[in-house]
Amino acid sequence: MFSLSLPLALAVVLGGYLLGSIPFGVIVTRLAGAGDVRKIGSGNIGATNVLRTGRKDLALATLIGDGAKGAIALLIARWTVGEDAAIWAGAAAFLGHLYPVWLRFKGGKGVATFLGLMIAAWWPVGLAACATWLLVFYLMRFSSLAALAAAALSPLYAFLLHAGRGIIALALFGAVLIFIRHHENIARLLKGEEPKVARKAKAAEPAS
User: Fold this and answer.
1) pLDDT per residue over 35-76, tens digit each?
2) Do the beta carbons of residue 120 and residue 74 sit within 8 Å?
3) Nearest-angstrom CA–CA distance, 95 and 172
4) 0.70 cut: is pTM over it?
5) Angle between helices 83-98 and 165-181 (to 10 degrees)
6) With contact defined as beta carbons under 8 Å apart, do 128 and 162 qualify?
7) Do 170 and 90 meet the contact criterion of CB atoms below 8 Å apart?
8) For a pLDDT cut of 90, what percent of the chain falls above it?
9) Closest among 54, 74, 165, 164 to 115, alpha carbons compared
10) pLDDT average, residue stretch 82-94
């Protein structure tokens, strides 16, 4: 980052942030006439809360959009500028999702965006994180716990898979912010009050 000129560095960070701040959950639900997702369920703009509209297609579109935007920001910076710029663009995109300027800095919890970033940054790390999410969710049925486990282990995966210091730092940065954004879920988990996701789709009540 410090090897870049100041204008280029600012362009990388601003571009990543703006791309990451696109609120796909809000956009797809409004376009589909499903209302404002911020007034539904937990009020979160991520795919889990979009699912509470009863529209699986909208939740899938949100999941893909949120996962892709961080990855795209990182890859564009990597291909056009270099690896250091890619890390900063990815971090900025992640911040954009969590704190989007368009929504008064009230964004999502970052799980899909984080996993997309990890896949783009170093795909073995990303796949390991996704596998962790799937395994913990399958065993425990807590969406939030699966997210926390995947985030917490990602820096370790990056270290063990020799992903490089920049990607390890990106994984650690994302993991810390995911834990911060899930502080209410953590409190409920510790109290035994976090709702599980039911195995039958009709009875499902996502946890985060």
Assistant:
1) 889 988 888 898 888 988 889 999 999 999 999 999 999 999
2) yes
3) 14
4) yes
5) 0
6) no
7) yes
8) 77
9) 74
10) 96
- State the pLDDT at residue 193: 92
Treating both helix axes as pointing N-terminal to C-terminal, what angle do 123-140 and 111-121 enclose, rounded to 10 degrees?
Answer: 140
Q: Which two tokens stand for residue 184?
A: 């209410």
Contacts of 169 (CB under 8 A, 6+ apart): 87
Q: How many CB atoms lie within 10 A of CB 106?
A: 14
Domain boundaries, the chain: 6-203
Q: How many CB atoms lie within 10 A of CB 119?
A: 20
Residue for token pair 């699912």: 51
Mean pLDDT of the chain: 91
Closest listed residue to residue 170, CA positions, set 154, 147, 149:
154
d(CA 159, CA 203): 39
* DSSP letter string, the chain: -TTS-HHHHHHHHHHHHHHHT--HHHHHHHHTT---GGGSTT---SHHHHGGGT-HHHHHHHHHHHHHHHHHHHHHHHHHT-HHHHHHHHHHHHHHHHS-GGGTT-----HHHHHHHHHHH-HHHHHHHHHHHHHHHHHH--HHHHHHHHHHHHHHHHHHTT--HHHHHHHHHHHHHHHHHTHHHHHHHHHT-PPPPPSSGGG-----
| C-alpha span between 175 and 9 (Å, rounded) | 24
pLDDT of residue 203: 37
